[in-house]
């Protein structure tokens, strides 16, 4: 039974990555709502029930029907308190949505921004209307219509615009300082770039500017927050995590040095060698040879 469940989840994630989109009823999907790659996918949920949602450093106590927007760059978790929890979920990649127009401004809207709020309280009339949109998305993804992806993108945009006309929920339990909040999300986002699974899929974010852009803040604001909270600059945290991943790849894979360099996002192997020697005092080849001798 466990192997069957694992195969089902693997198939679900493989299909999701291939298509870049999936929509389903929460009551009928089982474990698939909880297992997917948040590094890649945005999430919209329309749910009726009682729950506590932890989003970044805030916790929201919710009851009734809500519309939730999950950003893959911001950590969140969901604790369901109801014995029955009904609704719909759709997952989509940024690449899937970017095939349409006017997408970037919507993903930078208060629905997904760090300083915004991801939860909206929904009236019964709004619930009926949004239910209809989700049901149309589900029906469309199972159809043979040649342009169904375009139609699904239109449905997602329609949900965006319906949400932007509503007032966001302010029913949150606690709120850290701005610097602490930004640091928490940066550290989570940094960790989500790893582990590296294949040489052909390097981290999408590599520089402080990359992280600042992803979090919709100015790079100077990010640097100030990180330094104030941790005592170290943003670049130091990125370098430390990259170095730790490099050592793991040298020890646990048979990739050559060039493959590891490209996997970590370095344009040339010499750049990786210089980076590694600067932080360790030795080069990757020497370190790998030393690890090999210790394991013999």
Automatic annotation (TrEMBL):
Residues 180-290 form the HTH araC/xylS-type domain. Transmembrane segments: none annotated. The keyword Methyltransferase does not apply. It comes from the Bacteria. Keywords: DNA-binding, Transcription, Transcription regulation. Pfam families: HTH_18. The keyword GTP-binding does not apply. PANTHER family: ARAC-FAMILY TRANSCRIPTIONAL REGULATOR, TRANSCRIPTIONAL REGULATORY PROTEIN. This is AraC family transcriptional regulator.
């Amino acid at each position: 039974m466990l192997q069957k469940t694992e195969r089902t989840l693997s198939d679900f994630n493989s299909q999701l990555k291939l298509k870049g989109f999936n929509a389903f009823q929460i009551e009928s999907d089982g474990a698939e709502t909880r297992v997917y790659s948040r590094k890649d996918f945005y999430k919209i949920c329309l749910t009726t029930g009682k729950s506590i949602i932890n989003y970044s450093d805030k916790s929201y106590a919710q009851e009734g029907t809500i519309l939730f927007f999950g950003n893959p760059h911001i950590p969140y978790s969901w604790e369901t308190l109801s014995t029955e929890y009904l609704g719909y979920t759709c997952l989509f990649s940024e690449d899937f949505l970017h095939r349409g127009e006017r997408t970037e401004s919507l993903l930078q809207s208060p629905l997904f921004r760090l300083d915004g709020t991801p939860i909206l309280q929904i009236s019964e009339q709004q619930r009926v209307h949004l239910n209809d949109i989700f049901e149309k998305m589900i029906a469309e993804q199972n159809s043979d219509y040649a342009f169904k992806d375009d139609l699904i993108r239109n449905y997602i945009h329609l949900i965006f615009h319906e949400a932007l006309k509503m007032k966001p929920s302010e029913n949150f339990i606690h709120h850290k300082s701005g610097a602490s909040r930004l640091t928490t999300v940066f550290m989570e986002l940094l960790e989500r770039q790893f582990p590296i699974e294949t040489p052909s899929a390097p981290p999408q974010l590599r520089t402080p500017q990359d992280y600042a852009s992803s979090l919709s803040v100015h790079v100077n604001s990010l640097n100030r927050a990180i330094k104030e909270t941790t005592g170290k600059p943003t670049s130091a945290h990125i370098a430390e995590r990259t170095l730790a991943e490099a050592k793991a790849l040298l020890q646990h894979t048979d990739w050559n040095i060039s493959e590891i360099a490209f996997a970590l996002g370095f344009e040339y192997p010499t750049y990786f060698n210089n980076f590694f020697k600067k932080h360790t005092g030795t080069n990757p080849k020497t370190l790998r040879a030393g690890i090999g001798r210790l394991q013999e």
